[in-house]
Design a protein that fits this description.
The chain is mainly β. It has no helices and 29 strands.
Amino acid sequence: MVSAEHGGRGGGRWAYIGSFTAGGGDGITVAEVRDEDGALVPRATVATVENPSWLALDPGTGVLYAASDTERGAVAALRAEGERLTPLGPAVEVGGEGPAYVDVVGGRVLTAHYGSGGVGTLSVREDGSLTGPPVVLAHRGSGPDPERQRGPHAHQVLPDPGGRWVLSVDLGTDSVRVCALDRETGALRVHAETALRAGSGPRHLAFHPDGAVVYVLHELEPQMTVCRWEAEAGRLEPLAEVAVDTTGLAAGERAYPSVVSVSPDGRFVRAAVRGSDRVLTFDLTGDAEKPQLVDAVGCGGSWPRDLVTDASGRRVYVVNEWSGDITWFHADPETGRLVRAGAVAVPAAACLVLA
């Protein structure tokens, strides 16, 4: 079972939406989730965080953490009480450039630094506020893509379901690192590194609810790698590569898969694909290690950057950055197929958390 210790992405009544202020976004938008149909109704905006590229909610404290995707990257902590977000002091620098992801586990906030290529931690006080200095683990390495892989680009960092290990996904080095976290000092130590296909650019991973299977989505090549996770040993073992369908691309265009999400019941895994602007659904009911494509629908907008399934598994929210909207779908619990149900405008939308 997935631990509830680290930052949440499922939820119920409220939605917190990050948007790129540099692209005309409002920062963080708070929306009410309508019970009867899952519609998002904006209630407030908070503009105190610059470029909140990723959000994580600590369910234990009710504190929302927002990664500020800037050259001098930082994380802001805000107490979430319905539509009201109260900053808990100023944002704290993470010691890296362009943080693209934030999570929280065991009294530490985790950050992935895309720009400078590393991961780090910040200490969390009892009230949920943050304190430095950051403890940073620099990644080393490169890949064959001369434009995107000259050096490391950490794109995601998150705890495993048991909260014992920390996994970091690096687009620049074509690998996933498994790290041990010292919860006293915040230091991360590389325990193992799993190499993936050269030039594939792994961007984002998700655990199956059974905790034993991991799906790694690649940005530079349209594929998903299915891996087995051995929690006791802290080992990630690639099993198979699954093609990510790119139907709908115009001649000369590329697809850039962005995010992968597993339904709470473990029956389906979904991937958002930028470029072709579609959401793909794979059936896992036959075998979690052998995803079967069963559905492909338009994302409802352009450049889907995030994809969130609610706790019931019956609603899927897609964050479309370029078209500036959140589109939601009803998900058939038996077939996994998606039917578009509505949308709301959120300029330069980047990410979403349900609470």
